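Anyone opening a protein record will find just a pair of labelled lines. A complete record is shown below as an example:
=====
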Amino acid sequence: MSLASSLNQYKLENNRAYHVYRDGSYWVPHDDESLRLDLIAHHLFILTFHDQLFLAPLTDPKRVIDIGTGIGVWAQDFADKFPEAEVIGTDLSPCQRGPVPPNLTFEIDDACSEWTHPLNHFDYVHVRLLYASIRDWPAFYKECYDHLTPGGYIEHAEISPVLLSDDPNDDLEKIFYSQGALAREASARFGKQIVIQPHLKDMIEKAGFVDVIEHQYKWPISDWPADPRLKDVGRWNREHWVEGLEPWTLRLLTQHMGWTQDEVKAWAAKVRTAIWSRKHKAYQPLSVVYARKPL
């Protein structure tokens, strides 16, 4: 089997398709149902950023890399916005769809390995939703730092899978607490921390970046907010959770917690019922950090 054909191979597990390149290093399926979640997440970020693709103060980026590009929708939108920029999207499997702008290329690569691009090469490194995907965050940020041009920017966005509520009268159901505890324990057994959102700013500062700016947001998981934009975010995030619970948890819970596929499905159904109950003002914290490599 050639390298090119092997990269396009998938394996079935719990009736879901997973990539075979670096098999077992990622926990979410790479099938069409899961890739739809990428589109929902992208829309959530667009809503959160008020129709912008990024927050970093970019002016004229020439070389850009999108780490963990997934279906590639952010990279495609960025390449369309900056047609003079060379944009690269990397991921563990070739899951991109549709026509690709001429200034965009997709590469099969593992961001946990040593990068093969030239040092001091990129003007902008874009990272989002890599929770439970990186084993050694300091090593990852060093690769980002080393491959940015002096004065170039990194931007990293992460959500927490642990649900919170600011309402003192809102006693979140036990199923929500169990979901957060399960996420922590399963990812610990997997060897890749899933709750990294609170630590982004500190990790990026320790990597040597300067002018570090953090923006914090809340993603409701239902349409309980009064603010129209947040209400819209809540509707989309509810869809994200309802569709995502099984693909997000099947591999982690069956391989690392000893659950059966039927047990995961039954548990996910209970969480979905709680999400649809509309009794709770639950949300996910979101942190977006951008910073500059010193001149």
Q: What stands out?
A: The radius of gyration is 19 Å. The chain has a mean pLDDT of 89. DSSP finds eight helices and nine strands in the chain.
